[in-house]
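[Discussion] Sanity-checking designs against the backbone

I'm trying to build intuition for which residues belong where. Below is a structure token string of 190 positions. I'd appreciate it if someone posts a full sequence so I can compare it with mine line by line.
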């Protein structure tokens, strides 16, 4: 069973990569393509607004000056729904991506993800988001991160904190498991 947070993390990583290489916000079409590559089917696309779904999830894509992507369980339960907001902050001259609970009051978890902040001029990543690809494997859900992400995370001094839920991580070599949400984190160096 894929949860909204799993899709949100995978999607956020791919959007971050586009912003790092192009120094602009992705277009609605680009985000739609990412969603399709992540296994969602496009149900409807009208006036730029797209609705996508997989067996477990529904994603609603609203491109305006900023981009908003809502990810909801297909059961319609809002308690774990998330919203990804991607925008340019003119004051900071930065490209920003945040993952927020879509419903603050009902959200059951604790979203521990740091926002992506990219200097829009130099393309430098100014924050330490722990993003990667989330896969369902035998035995559970695994967030696969690369060596670069691990190094940044390590320098931020927060290696003990689960990026998914804010819980406590237990490390063994290149793998960690969260004692609270059960997600596993795997470092894969290229
Ligand atoms: Zn956790």
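Best answer:
Here's mine. Compare freely.
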């Amino acid at each position: 069973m894929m949860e909204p947070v799993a899709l949100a993390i995978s999607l956020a990583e791919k959007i971050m990569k586009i912003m790092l290489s192009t120094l602009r916000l992705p277009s609605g079409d680009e985000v739609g393509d990412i969603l399709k590559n992540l296994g969602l089917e496009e149900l409807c696309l009208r006036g730029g607004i797209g609705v996508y779904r997989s067996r477990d999830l529904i994603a609603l894509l609203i491109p305006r000056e900023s981009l908003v992507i809502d990810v909801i369980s297909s059961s319609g339960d809002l308690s774990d729904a998330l919203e990804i907001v991607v925008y340019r902050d003119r004051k900071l001259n930065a490209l920003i991506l945040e993952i927020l609970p879509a419903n603050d009051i009902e959200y059951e978890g604790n979203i521990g993800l740091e926002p992506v902040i990219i200097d829009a001029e130099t393309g430098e990543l100014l924050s330490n988001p722990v993003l990667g690809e989330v896969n369902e494997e035998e035995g559970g859900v695994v967030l696969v991160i690369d060596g670069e992400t691990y190094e940044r995370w390590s320098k931020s001094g927060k290696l003990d904190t689960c990026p998914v839920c804010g819980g406590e991580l237990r490390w063994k070599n290149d793998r960690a498991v969260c004692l609270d949400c059960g997600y596993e984190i795997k470092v894969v160096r290229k």
